[in-house]
Q: What sequence folds into this?
């Protein structure tokens, strides 16, 4: 089954309310169908708005808002924050200041014994065995204090044994970034990713989560369609934007590689919600080739914010949604169904990609 057939086949599988499917029509999907589906989603789920960016071969096919949103509307992006944090960390890998396979104790000596053995790679891929800790949400705390608390908790499982999606390991990564750079996590992000990519409205300690000392590198980011669109443009171009190299090509591809092979994900709630069993560094691997290369990777978040890059079509995009009314069990699959419609519309209006057989995950 080809990419188009698989993508279209997933449209009827999104759970909860089913607003995207209500706008689906028989026959080839077009961008007019996508526009109608997004507007139906906004209306049916009583959302403040939405926005969509789609670019293929450098040509902007969609950049528009729906309802009360426009491309500059800033909103919480939840777990789309993880992609930004992984990229920030990878700038340090590029400089030789952090090694992905070094244990966390190399950079945070308070992590002693077994809890010091997970690697940076495992922290970024939810395979570290470190459990969840509520300290990450304490706005009167700090990444330093929270990491010290996590270091006393021990492990929930052996590193590498289990994929367990969560947020705490990314706060540990955030603290590693602070220690290695000698500055706050927010300033490190701005200096290494936000500034070079010109993401002028993207922060981890913004209006929706007001703490400079204890941001949540996994989840407290806020951004806009235009800002995150510049980030995925940089990733799509394998680390370059406007003639400036932000990440090495090797680091970009490392982010997109399967980092969880051999780790059990049985029963993981996030895998059940997304329908995607494979993960990179801070990103889901929505479509993989027969050789297990990441063909489409995404940074989807609990509120429906859904950025992606598509190697098969030389495309990228962002669906900007903030669904605070429903849980992730509804918001994520609903946004995912819309994004799958975008892929189908790309094939209809600009031509299907050619290449090896692929597997498309999702609901």
A:
């Amino acid at each position: 089954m080809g990419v188009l057939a698989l993508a279209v086949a997933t449209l009827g599988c999104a759970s909860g309310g089913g607003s995207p499917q209500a706008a689906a029509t028989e026959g080839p999907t077009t961008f007019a169908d996508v526009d109608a589906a997004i507007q139906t989603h906004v209306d049916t789920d009583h959302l403040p708005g939405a926005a969509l960016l789609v670019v293929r071969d450098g040509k902007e096919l969609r950049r528009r808002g729906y309802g009360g949103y426009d491309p500059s509307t800033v909103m919480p992006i939840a777990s789309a924050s993880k992609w930004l944090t992984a990229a920030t960390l990878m700038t340090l890998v590029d400089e030789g200041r952090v090694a992905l396979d070094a244990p966390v104790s190399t950079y945070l000596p308070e992590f002693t014994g077994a809890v010091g053995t997970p690697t940076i790679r495992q922290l970024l891929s939810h395979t570290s065995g470190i459990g969840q800790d509520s300290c990450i949400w304490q706005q009167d705390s700090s990444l330093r204090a929270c990491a010290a608390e996590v270091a006393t908790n021990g492990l929930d499982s052996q590193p590498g044994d289990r994929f367990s999606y969560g947020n705490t390991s990314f706060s540990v990564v955030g603290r590693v970034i602070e220690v290695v750079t000698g500055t706050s996590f927010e300033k490190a992000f701005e200096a290494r990713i936000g500034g070079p990519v010109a993401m002028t409205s993207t922060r981890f300690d913004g209006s929706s989560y007001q703490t400079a000392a204890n941001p949540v590198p996994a989840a407290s980011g806020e951004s806009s369609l235009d800002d995150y669109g510049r980030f995925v443009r940089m990733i799509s171009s394998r680390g370059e934007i406007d003639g400036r190299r932000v990440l090495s090509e090797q680091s970009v591809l490392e982010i997109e590689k399967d980092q969880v092979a051999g780790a059990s994900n049985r029963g993981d709630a996030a895998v059940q919600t997304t329908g995607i069993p494979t993960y990179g560094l801070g990103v889901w691997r929505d479509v993989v080739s027969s050789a297990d290369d990441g063909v489409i990777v995404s940074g989807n978040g609990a509120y429906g914010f859904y950025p992606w890059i598509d190697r098969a079509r030389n495309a990228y995009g962002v669906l900007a949604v903030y669904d605070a009314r429903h849980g992730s069990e509804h918001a994520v699959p609903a946004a995912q169904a819309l994004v799958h419609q975008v892929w189908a519309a790309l094939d209809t209006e600009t031509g299907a990609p050619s290449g090896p057989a692929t597997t498309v995950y999702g609901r």
Notes: The chain is about 35% helix and 15% strand. Residues 261 and 278 are 8 Å apart (CA to CA).
